[in-house]
Each structure stands twice: as structure tokens, then as C-alpha cells.
Amino acid sequence: MFFAPLHVPVHRRLETLAVLYHVVTCIFLPIYAVLVPLFLLITPLCVFVWAYAAWYYYDYSTPFRGARPKKWYRNLSIWNRFCDYFPIKLVKTAELSPEHNYIVGSHPHGILSFGIFGTFCTEGAGFSQTFPGIQPFVATLNANFYAPFRKELMTCHGLISAAKESIMYNLTGEKKGNAVAIVLGGAEEALDAASENYNLTLKKRKGFVKIALRTG
């Protein structure tokens, strides 16, 4: 077992804690979000479990209807620390008019897609300042929304279902300025993740092109 040296700067420790928080919410929160309510069902606190269950049922379609992005949550200082850890930088090579909607392809997938999370799901890399008037969303597997409590966190980030109907919902209608980011290689590409080696899964991934053509 290795421990961080004592001379590691405080800002670096805070950056590490920010990344750890994200990893915990991705991997461990879904486990505890199931086990804890099961335990509470046999206690007087079970009323809160049933209340959340009712809310979960009522709010089930939110990931399919544009999520619920919250500026205050996306702007928390923890996300600046998160992006500084790697570091993650957002470089603009073209203007995006808020009068149009966009599909943004992202690659490679990686293990936990840290890059696209930092740039599109938070303001740690300054997305809103770089692309004013554009509301970012990130499409992810439906299964990621099944876990209680994590579903609320994900929709606050602007994560939506990767289902065709969900993506179409964000790209059509009167509201403009939406940018839906899709990690094109999906879970299959994640298995090819390796340091300094980018194996992309693209040849069979043409659905996003069809949606782009249909939505303009």
C-alpha cells in the first residue's frame, strides 16, 4: 500500500478528493442507494423510503425529457478541482450559434468518461463561458438512471438517456441551443481503453448520423 507524501500541496489533495467524490458516486453510490433503503424498510424511517419511491415513479421519465440541469450544481467549485486534476481543458475551434441544436461526438470512451463529464456535465472547464447560449447534455445508458438518488445527481448534471427518443426530444421542438454529446464508441470502446492508445469503435456507430440528418 502506498500513501501520498506529506509534501503534496493542499490544492492537489483537494483535486484528488474531487475525483474520488465522482468515482464514489459512479461506482459505490448505486450499491448503498439500494442497500440502505432496504434496511430502512424494517425501521420507523420506512416512510421516507416509500415517499422517495413515489417520487422515483413520478420522476421516472425525466432522463427522457431533457433531464434537469442545475446551474448551481454544475458550478460548484469541486468541479474546477476535478478538471484541474487531469487537467481537462476545453478548446474552442468553432462558434456554435444558440439558434441551432447540435450533436457532438466524443471519443474515446475511456473507463468512466472523465473527459466528457468534466467538459459537458460541469462548468469546471468553463463550457458556458466558452459557448454562451448553449445548453450541454450528455447521453448515457438507461441503466445508469436505475439507481436511486444517483438518478437525481445525473439529471442535475444534464445527463439524459441515450435512447433515440430521448435524443430526438432535445434536438427537436421550439427550444434551440441544445448540444447533445454522445460517446460514440459506447461500452464496447471502453473495453479498449489503454494509456496513450486510442482504439475507436466507429464503423458500426451510424445512428447519430441518421438522427443528425433527421433533425437538421
Number of strands: 4
Shape: globular
Q: Treating each run of at least 4 consecutive H or I residues as one helix, how many helices? A: 10
Domains, number: 1
Strand order of the largest sheet: 1-4-2-3
Which ranges are low-confidence, i.e. pLDDT below 50, for 5 or more consecutive residues? none
What is the residue-mean pLDDT, rounded to a whole number? 89
How much of the residues is beta strand, in percent?
Answer: 5-15%
Category by helix and strand content: alpha/beta
What is the H/E string?
HHHHEHHEHEHEHH
Q: Mind telling me the C-alpha Rg?
A: 19 Å
- Provide the helix percentage: 40-55%
Q: Which sheet architecture does the biggest sheet show?
A: 4 strands, parallel
Distance between the termini: 54 Å
Could you walk me through the main structural features you see in this protein, from its secondary elements to its overall organization?
Belongs to the diacylglycerol acyltransferase family. One of its GO terms (biological process) is triglyceride biosynthetic process. This protein is an alpha/beta fold and about 220 residues long. It has one domain (about 10-215). It is about 45% helix and about 10% strand. The protein has ten helices and four strands. It has helices spanning about 10-40, 45-60, 70-75, 75-85, 115-120, 125-130, 150-155, 165-170, 185-190, 205-215; strands at about 100-105, 135-140, 160, 180-185. It has a four-stranded parallel beta sheet, sandwiched between helices. Strand 2 (about 135-140), helix 7 and strand 3 form a beta-alpha-beta unit. Helix 1 crosses helix 4 (about 75-85). It starts with 9 loop residues before the first helix and ends with a helix. The mean pLDDT is about 90.
